From TrEMBL:
The chain crosses the membrane at residues 211-236, 248-269, 290-316, 336-355. It comes from Prauserella salsuginis. Residues 1-20 are annotated as: Disordered. The lineage of its organism: Bacteria, Bacillati, Actinomycetota, Actinomycetes, Pseudonocardiales. Residues 1-19 have a biased composition (Basic and acidic residues). Keywords: Membrane, Transmembrane, Transmembrane helix. It comes from the Bacteria. This is DUF2267 domain-containing protein.
Length: 387
C-alpha cells in the first residue's frame, strides 16, 4: 500500500527526528462522535507503536452524507488535502449490509475507514469504539494486500474476540468488493443479535436523557400542574387510596400518552412508503425513536417524582395529611402523594409538548445526524405538498 507523506504538516523538530510522525485524522460527526474522537485523541497515541499525532475534525458536511461510500470518498479527499497518513471517520450513521449491521468499512488503498458508532451497541460504547479503532489501524498498516471478495479472515484483537462479546454479538471480518467503491474490508455483527445491538446503539447515540432539558414547554407544564396538585387535598386522597396495580397502570398510561403525543404532533414516525431507506432500516428507526422517547419520558417523570417528593416532605406537615386522609402519615404516604402529583404532571406535559417546535423536539430526541436527516425529509414533504 502506498504510504502518504506528512512532511508538510511536520514542524522542524519532527523533520529532524529519527522516526517519522504518523498523523491520524479523526473526522467526526458533531455531537456524540465528536466527544468520542476527542477521547481517542487523548488516550490512543500512548498505546500505539512509534510516534503518532492525532487531529480531530468535527465536520457537519460529512455528517450530511448518506452512505459509507460517500463518506469514504470525502474522508479520502480530506486525508489528502490535510497531508494525513491515515484518516478515520467516526459517524453516528446506522449502516446495514447483506451480512448484517456494519461496524467498520475500510479502504486500504487510500488509507481511510469509516466506523459506525451505532454498530457498537448501547453499552460500553466508548470502549468498543476504542477497540475497533485499534483494529482498523492494524488493518490500515497491514501490507498483506487485498483479500479475495467473500474471504473471512480471523484477525480480531484488542478485546474484540472476547468471550462475552462473542456471546452478545460477535464481530466478523469479511473481504468485500462493491461496485463504484474502493471499500475492500468490512466488519459486521451478523444475525438477530447484531440487529439488536444496532438498535441499542441507535438509541444510545440519541442520548435520550437529554429529552428532559430539550422539552422546556412540556417540562414547564408538568411542573406547573404538579404544583397545583401539591395544594389540592383531592389529589392527596387519590394518591393515598389507589392500589399499587392501578398506580402502575396509570403511570404507564401517562408515559404512553406523552410518547404518543410527541410522535403524532411532531411527525417522528417513519412511513412505510418512505423511499429513503429499506424497510428493515425504517423499522429500526421507528423502534429507536420509540425507545428513545420512552426512556426520555421515564427520566423526566423520575426527576419530577423526586422533586415532588421533596416538596411534599418539606411543605406538607404530617399532621395535616393525617387529618385529611384519616390515617397515620409515613414515608409511604408522601411517596403516594408525590406519585399523584407526578402522574398529573405527566399528562399535562403531554399537552404542553404540542407547544414545542418540531426543530426543538428533534434536537432533544436525536443526535446531530438523525435530527438533520428528519429535518431535511420534513422540508421535502412540505415542498412536495406545496407543489
Amino acid at each position: 500500500m502506498p504510504s502518504r507523506s506528512s512532511d508538510d504538516t511536520h514542524s522542524e523538530a519532527d523533520d529532524h527526528s529519527p522516526e517519522r510522525v504518523t498523523v491520524l485524522g479523526l473526522i467526526a460527526d458533531p455531537d456524540m462522535p465528536e466527544t468520542i474522537a476527542a477521547y481517542l485523541a487523548e488516550s490512543l497515541p500512548e498505546e500505539l507503536d512509534g510516534e503518532w499525532r492525532f487531529e480531530v475534525d468535527a465536520d457537519p458536511v460529512t455528517a450530511t452524507l448518506k452512505g459509507t461510500a460517500e463518506i469514504l470518498d470525502q474522508t479520502a479527499h480530506k486525508c489528502d488535502s490535510r497531508g494525513w497518513t491515515y484518516a478515520i471517520c467516526i459517524t453516528d450513521l446506522p449502516v446495514r449490509s447483506e451480512e448484517g449491521p456494519v461496524v467498520a468499512d475500510i479502504d486500504h488503498d487510500r488509507g481511510v475507514a469509516v466506523v459506525s458508532v451505532p454498530g457498537m451497541g448501547g453499552l460500553q460504547t466508548r470502549r468498543r469504539v476504542h477497540q475497533v479503532i485499534r483494529q482498523v489501524l492494524d488493518e490500515l498498516r497491514d501490507d498483506h494486500g487485498r483479500d479475495e471478495p467473500g474471504q473471512v479472515r480471523e484477525q480480531r484483537r484488542h478485546g474484540l474476540s472476547s468471550r462475552a462479546l462473542g456471546v452478545l454479538a460477535p464481530i466478523r471480518r469479511k473481504a468485500v468488493e462493491t461496485e463504484g467503491s474502493h471499500l475492500d474490508v468490512r466488519y459486521v455483527t451478523p444475525g438477530r443479535r447484531g440487529r439488536l445491538r444496532l438498535l441499542t446503539g441507535m438509541v444510545r447515540t440519541n442520548r435520550p436523557w437529554r429529552l428532559v432539558f430539550g422539552l422546556s414547554r412540556a417540562l414547564a407544564a408538568a411542573v406547573a400542574t404538579s404544583a397545583f396538585g401539591l395544594s389540592s387535598s383531592t389529589i392527596w386522597m387519590v394518591g393515598d387510596q389507589l392500589n399499587t396495580g392501578f398506580k402502575v397502570l396509570t403511570t404507564a398510561t401517562a408515559i404512553a400518552a406523552l410518547v404518543a403525543w410527541l410522535i403524532a404532533a411532531h411527525n417522528l414516525w417513519e412511513k412505510r412508503g418512505d423511499t429513503r431507506s429499506d424497510p428493515e432500516l425504517a423499522r429500526l428507526y421507528n423502534a429507536s425513536t420509540l425507545l428513545t422517547l420512552v426512556i426520555g419520558v421515564v427520566v423526566l417523570l423520575a426527576i419530577l417524582f423526586v422533586v415532588n417528593f421533596v416538596l411534599a416532605w418539606l411543605i406538607l406537615p404530617a399532621s395535616l395529611l393525617t387529618s385529611m386522609l384519616g390515617s397515620e402519615t409515613d414515608v409511604g404516604t408522601y411517596l403516594a402523594v408525590a406519585w399523584a402529583f407526578t402522574t398529573l404532571g405527566g399528562i399535562a406535559g403531554a399537552l404542553g409538548s404540542s407547544l414545542e417546535t418540531d426543530q426543538a423536539v428533534r434536537q432533544a430526541a436525536y443526535g446531530y445526524r438523525e435530527s438533520r436527516r428528519r429535518a431535511e425529509y420534513q422540508e421535502h414533504e412540505q415542498g412536495s405538498g406545496d407543489g
